[in-house]
Amino acid sequence: MTPAPRLPALVPTGFARVGILSRAPELLIELGCSPQPILDAVGVSEAFLACPDNLINFQTAGSLLARCALATGDDFGVRLGARANTTTLGLLGSLLLTAPNVGEALRLLIQHLHMHSQTAVAALDEMSDTVSLSYGIHHLPETGSEQVYGGGMGIALGIMRSLCGAQWRPAAVHFPFRAPASLGTFRQIFGCSLLFDADLCAMSFPVALLAQPIQKSAFNVAKHFHLLRTIAEFQRHHPEAVTPRVQRTVHQLLLESRLSEESLAEKLHLHRRTLNRMLAREGTSFRELAREARFNVAKQRLKDSSATIEQIALTLGFTSSSSFGRAFQQWAGTSPTVFRQQHGT
Q1: H or E stretch at 124
Q2: Is 87:41 a contact under the CB 8 Å cutoff?
Q3: What is the CATH number of the domain that holds 135?
């Protein structure tokens, strides 16, 4: 009889599991830097980070990565993320390895990523011959967002290598921030075409890979459905409010460039009026959640990238830079240009 995996704790909004951050101290030491002053500055202990299942506030995680990068170099997040594999995701990672193929594993990752982090979303965009696995943050940290995005792509690489083999490489990786002063580590880790100041944080690869069986693993039907039942039990014991689920889905649709009230209702398998009533009961609305998602993406692009105002406006679905400028003025109380001057890195 298969033993029941230990159910994880519920991840609150704005938090994530420590996960790969548990290996930050060892990487700091390898790079010739003492971890203790950095950990003291952000208010976390090495003992706390040593447990991957501990829950960390995402603002604290961003600050930790920013200070690590300041001490060691712009590539810290990518270096750390690339040490990940499916075990980094705990119970969810175990589920991915029992999937029948790579495509199903990635769909399970996207569906259940909130069990690992309530701050991040992923999306899969299938085209005729390529597929894009994208990553977004819907609770943006005040500092370190470029390290979080770089780390996210490193983690994605580690997960894909767990599924496809240690030598697997993507066709291209896109980052939504400026190119670092040195690209050596990025090129060494990813070994593929790199694009910075991109619209999305994403990696692409041939669509045929989705049908490939998981590397070195026979599809175990019994174990697969046992883990699915375990996750269903977790969700039954921890029913989720509507708003966090909708926030994630709104950001996924924004990543996919198809954010609309109709698309949201369809993706959630709800009638529009039912969705609106559910959100109203929780004191919010589609319009408010869409505004929040666009504002978060706009802030990140203005702070971390060299993309023009026109490019950012187009990415967010605005018809012109002037309409984006008016909306941003309402959101932030200042223009996109002034915001970039004040907050740009």
Answers
A1: strand 120-126
A2: no
A3: 3.90.1520
